[in-house]
Amino acid sequence: MRWDKTNVKKAVYIIIGAFIYAIGINAFLVPQRFLTGGFAGIAMLLYYLVKWPVGVTVFIMNIPLFALSFKYISGRFVIFSLIGMIALSACLSLTEGWAMHLEDPLLASIFGGAIAGLGTGIVLRQRGSLGGTDIISVLINKYFSFDIGTITAILNGIILVAALIASDITVVLYSAASIFVSSQFIDGVQAGLNRRKTAFIVTDHPDEIAARIIEKMHRGVTFLHGEGAYTHQQKKIIYCDVTTMEVARLKEIVKKIDDQAFMTIMDAREVLGQGFSLEDSF
């Protein structure tokens, strides 16, 4: 892998993401004795039991895992994940003691999960990880075809069950809530702050509407050919992708030309290509 400007930029974002994640853990979750998912959660559990430093424990647990992953996983992903893991271990040690002692444990759970999820999402957008269970999930997915999200959820569930050794059920439930909030923020950051929408438009004026979308919104349009089940009439169906901010403008254009048009607008997980890019969203 060549260390050009793009890869250096990715590495910097990964380090920033690891730092944000560490703040979420040490500032909000550790003071409440909550857990998070992954190897960090195991390290936190050991910290509560025997006072082993979280950052050092995370680093030690990852050593054999990375030795294995270099052999079986894409080199670029492993290198960026190694950067993420080292940065995380360092940042967890650096931010140790940066505690926010909130009186409301629910707020600590929510904010800790949100900040940790934001940091993780930034790392994942650079096609890296923070090591730990992310690497395990990728390895299992590669050779056994299990969904990565499912594997991660199972591993986190095992960690939460193990947490009952050191904590009561209330702490475990708060930890589960924090992990859920974190997962939502991870998904949000990966999707981008400016989410994409896919629109399907059935109209009697497809050419006019398509031309207006191209002219006014500078978005590409594709015609799909459909047939009405009742009328058996052939129709051009307009397909286009827009940002969330552009949905209102799209509706306005369609309604102005054909107020009887049938529109379906749905979330698009990710859109790449001309007019849309990963860098534009972050």
Automatic annotation (TrEMBL):
<keyword id="KW-1133">Transmembrane helix</keyword>
<feature type="transmembrane region" description="Helical">
    <location>
        <begin position="50"/>
        <end position="70"/>
    </location>
</feature>
<dbReference type="InterPro" id="IPR051461">
    <property type="entry name" value="UPF0750_membrane"/>
</dbReference>
<dbReference type="InterPro" id="IPR015867">
    <property type="entry name" value="N-reg_PII/ATP_PRibTrfase_C"/>
</dbReference>
<feature type="transmembrane region" description="Helical">
    <location>
        <begin position="77"/>
        <end position="100"/>
    </location>
</feature>
<feature type="transmembrane region" description="Helical">
    <location>
        <begin position="106"/>
        <end position="124"/>
    </location>
</feature>
<feature type="transmembrane region" description="Helical">
    <location>
        <begin position="12"/>
        <end position="30"/>
    </location>
</feature>
<feature type="transmembrane region" description="Helical">
    <location>
        <begin position="144"/>
        <end position="165"/>
    </location>
</feature>
<dbReference type="InterPro" id="IPR019264">
    <property type="entry name" value="DUF2179"/>
</dbReference>
<dbReference type="Pfam" id="PF02588">
    <property type="entry name" value="YitT_membrane"/>
</dbReference>
<feature type="domain" description="DUF2179">
    <location>
        <begin position="219"/>
        <end position="273"/>
    </location>
</feature>
<dbReference type="InterPro" id="IPR003740">
    <property type="entry name" value="YitT"/>
</dbReference>
<keyword id="KW-0812">Transmembrane</keyword>
<keyword id="KW-0472">Membrane</keyword>
<feature type="transmembrane region" description="Helical">
    <location>
        <begin position="171"/>
        <end position="189"/>
    </location>
</feature>
<keyword id="KW-1003">Cell membrane</keyword>
<dbReference type="GO" id="GO:0005886">
    <property type="term" value="C:plasma membrane"/>
</dbReference>
<protein>
    <recommendedName>
        <fullName>DUF2179 domain-containing protein</fullName>
    </recommendedName>
</protein>
<dbReference type="Pfam" id="PF10035">
    <property type="entry name" value="DUF2179"/>
</dbReference>
